[in-house]
Amino acid sequence: MSNKKYLYGAAVQGIQGFIFGTNKLKEIVGASELIEQICTDLFYQKAQINKRDSNIILSAAGNIKYVFDDEQKCKDFVKIFPKSVSELAPGVTISQAVIEFEGDDFSNSIQKLEDKLKEQRNIVAAPLEIGFMGLERARRTSGVAVDFVKDEALDDATLAKINAGDNVALFKKMSGFKPKASELAFDTEEITKSGKNSWIAVIHADGNGLGQILQNKGKELVEKKLFEKFSNTIEESTKNAIKKAFDEIVKNECNGKNKYPIRPIIIGGDDVTIIIRADLALSFTKIFLEQFELESSGKFKEIGLGDYFGGLTACAGIAYIKESYPLHYGLSLAEKLCSDAKKYVKRTKGDGKIEDPQYGQMPKSAIAFYKVQDSFVDDLKTLKQRTLQTKTGLSYYVGPYKLSDLDNLYKKLQTLKAEADKNDKTKAVSKLRQIVSESYKDVSTSIFMMERMKEVNENFYDALKLEHELEAIKTNGKSQLLDFITLHSFNYGNKEN
To answer: N or C, which end of the chain is more exposed by having fewer CB within 10 Å?
Structure first.
């Protein structure tokens, strides 16, 4: 009897371009719902399986990995799936690859599959629509127009996104309940309406070290038929963690006047992308990461994998942008910040470094954030140098923050809030803002202002531990001052700032 199996992989090409090819929130949400359907309901239907199939390795966030036991069934699926995807979500291109392997060659097969998928992404797919010169075009996308909505010509892809925009599968996945349509935000202005200003945040979070886990433990998981439990554990940990964050930070924000100031864009596997009101973002992310570690640790113990896996960790990037700012730039920056956090925890010695890729300690969870003040976004390294570093070398980019570091930051923000509530709401940070501004022009002036603050408001100075910031300014080190100001400012202001 043949021991051959067929490792199938599929990936949505240009998933960011498809989801964020528009700045209209309803279309972004609709595109996200379509991606969710491709990797779940459509995949299960066409593969003739259910979501509890033990051969599912991954089925989320635009990625599918599945082990077929039958060669003909695999071939039949490969033929029909791309067409089914394009019918559900016009404009989506999917890459497919299959690796034949014996029962003991799974780990190598995973890497070969990834290499093949990368090759497939370089093959340009022929467009299904034919646009002759005389045909009407959708102005926003340049696609062939198929219908008019409110006098705007729209293509197939945009119409599909709009039609899916009313779906609430992702919101229900996050909250645990089906919301009313009147409770949902369908544009970014509705997200910020309940806040003090017009700032939103794009959060992107991703698990640490899962690629290594699949390579090192994949064979064992397949042989013991544990892949289903492994995948479900990650999925359930993510869902439970994001629900915890939603319940504690967002749930009570919705009332008769205001809608929920949040829209999930991706929730799949260990991958999460969220659009949320700016002042809620950091607390939401912190709770999510903490709960993800707790949930995964407990669930792996339940299925007998606790000795190896312990609790999984994750990193997150938060891009703070204005409500009118192009959302795809926000997502791109959030992903770069997440990558920066991952690099930071991997190179951190002592607590956080994977000394043994197979049995070593997982990296710590961490968060990096950035507030966009410009009209465009460069690469993160350039942004740091151009906007967060003075001519003398003083840096205002203190992050990424490990979760344990955030506790001290929160205490300082509480001090700022107490000072703002006690006095004029802008006076509490105006001097700090002046000090930061002067450090870019004349560092001696900023030092003088800081030392003067110590004399006239010693309690405030000590509570914020500004001695550390003064030392950073004097030695061109790293100062947390701008982080205080940035995070504090989201609780105040108006729609014009």
So the answer is: N
**CATH code, domain with 31:** 3.30.70.270
Give tens-digit pLDDT for 284-296.
999 999 999 999 8
Q: Is the residue at 160 inside a domain? A: no
Residue located via tokens 């299959």: 98
Listed in sequence order, the residues at least 6 apart from 256 whose beta carbon sits closer than 8 Å to its beta carbon are: none
Can you list the alpha helix ranges (DSSP code H) found in 24-105?
25-37, 43-47, 71-88
Cβ–Cβ under 8 Å, residues 207 and 270: yes
Tokens of 484: 């205080």
- Does residue 155 lie in a domain region? no
368-379 per-position pLDDT tens digit:
999 998 776 678
**If we measure between CA atoms, which residue out of 330, 360, 329, 359 comes closest to residue 345?**
360
211 and 357 share a domain?
yes
| Sequence-separated (6 or more) residues with CB below 8 Å from residue 136 | 144, 145, 153
Q: Which residues contact 480 (CB under 8 A, 6 or more apart)?
A: 398, 409, 412, 468, 469
Domain of 443? 404-489
Structural domain contains residue 139: no
Q: Which of 421, 444, 418, 433 is nearest to 484 (CA)?
A: 433
Q: Token digits for 1?
A: 């009897």
